[in-house]
Amino acid sequence: MILHQVEALAAAGVTDIVLAVNYRPDVMVAHLKKYEEQYNVKITFSVENEPLGTAGPLKLAEEILGKDDKPFFVLNSDVVCDYPFQQLADFHKTHGDEGTIVVTKVEEPSKYGVVVHQPGHPTRIDRFVEKPVEFVGNRINAGIYILNPSILNRIELRPTSIEQETFPSMTRDGQLHSFDLEGFWMDVGQPKDFLSGTCLFLSSLTKKGSKLLTPATQPFVHGGNVMIDASAKIGNNCRIGPNVTIGPNVVIGDGVRIQRSVVLEGSRIKDHAWVKSTIVGWHGTVGKWARLENVTVMGDDVTIADEVYVNGGSILPHKTIKANIDVPAIIM
Amino acid sequence: MSTKALILVGGSQRGTRFRPLSLDQPKPLFDVAGHPIIWHCLTALTKIDVKEVFLIGYYDESIFRDFIRDSSKEFPQFTIKYLREYEPLGTAGGLYHFRDVILKGSPKRFFVLNADVCCSFPLKEMLQIADDREAEAVILGTRVSNEAASNFGCIVSDQTTKRVIHYVEKPESHISNLINCGVYLFGSSIIFKIRKAMEIKADRRSSDPLYDPSEEDGSDNVLRLEQDILGPLAEEKSFYVYETRDFWRQIKTAGSAVPANALYLQKAHQSGAEDLAAASTTIIPPVYIHPTAIVDPTAKLGPNVSIGPRAHIGAGARVKDSIVLEDAEIKHDACVLYSIVGWNARIGAWARVEGTPISVNQHSTTVLKNGVKVQSVTILAKDCVVHDEIRVQNCVCLPYKELKKDVVNEVIM
Question: Which of A11, A286, B196, B204 has an alpha carbon 20 to 30 Å from A232's alpha carbon atom?
Fold first, then answer.
């Protein structure tokens, strides 16, 4: 997921990327370092020893972000969309103020923080209204910003929120603008949303005619939006799709049906299994004639025995499931 | 010395618990382990010296015509006749009604088998105990769990002599965990005992001021072996029990056909029956496949699976602990577990039809799910259709239904 962001940032001419992380950095370091060369960017890890909220990490990385007066992008890693970095940078330069946040239009703004513009101005933000009870607009913060290094002066090095402290201080000074996002947007912090976000992302690739997608001429591709790593092996008489990603070194048996799912690296799905709305974790195994559905999430190295049914199971790493999970449950 | 045998087959007004399968076929003719339930009774009777077999029930005569014709060829050692009761007389009432046929030729004794039990029918052993003890009646008994016992007729017997000293049908409290298997060997004198019981019952009615005829569930002739005969019989001194340690199951509900199928298949497998499918990477014994069924070589079957005539099992399908009836079709990559797939039913590709496993020794076919009692076995009646990729779990589906959405814990009308 983060790779899509790295790729899009590099394409927009970004040379330095700071990852603000607070857990398992060694896993991510190993994962991302190899992409530095591929995309010709420098990736720095900024590790928080205590959670610093959404603004604190920027202050922590002041040395890199403030090394010149060029603006920097800020992204929430949970957000999936058609990243419009180049247009965003161009727009930001045009208005000349300190910051621009990407906004997306939603149907039900009452669940979000809504952006309200200054009267008579199309982009300058006047204020934010959290969970508005009456309609004040339907543009919400999409979690992607471009900011000038000067805003670092507005942040102290302590746990602090960019949405609740930094942005209001910028709007008071008329320094914050909005930029409308075209296309899909999804916060994929939850597994359910992650699956929806994957669907949206794959649909957008299909629209663009992306070469990353597995061509529909493959006999097993069903309904399109299927992305299969070249190193994955697919058995005979499978039906895969729509909306499926299959990672590196995955082995899919014969007569397997997969739809609306993400199958991660090194996992194995045995013959005749049926998989829908499921995240098959790294190095997982799904048994013959097993059936997984309803946002089932397999952690690292989980095994589902032959013929077992799992309905919405969140299964923690290294577990083996030998009996049906009939109703959604967390398996510790 | 030859004996006669009576098989009590009941009637269509009974056996309602076997619905929805009994809506399309009388329960005694339902196939388990590739053969009708009463075929297994007949097979047991070939092991002893029996010359005449009577089916007693109140189904229309035409129902058993084909079965009797075919079985007469298959079992030339005895004659098979159907005796029809024109009104339900009760198990004992029926015997009395046909007393002339039973007593013809003055047989010393005769067997009475309930058609709805599945067991090894140790008839030889029952004859042995009758000879040894000069018993007037021998009942087949089996031990069940204390919890299950009160759903059956309970027998109290003398530990050493095996004489029955007390018998109560479905007691409210715990009496014994030795229960009535529904298989009896009676001396001919039982007919007179039945007449005596009828007289006593009629007497009691006429003298009982509390007797209310509207509370009776049939005519005055209704007299049941279990309630009306066995209790008094225990008062006398020549009623014995043969306790079997082999398998025993009642076939009451439609779901109970699945464990019965499993037990008969295991018995056939262990005795080296030749009509079972040979073990292989895709066949886990015991599995019965009718010679006219078409099973793809990549489909995996067993254990405890019966596939009926002209049934079709597609590539990569999985069938386990299930009965697939005539002309049914299971498409590729579908999975069928602990279920009955009715006549001409269709199961789509990647569909999953599933019941809940219950132990063979558990004398119940329901399970509790989220506090609700549901059928443990999923049953698709005649001509049901399950669409591709649909999941059906713990459901009973009446004939001709089409399932397009996932269903769980439902009776689909």
Answer: A11
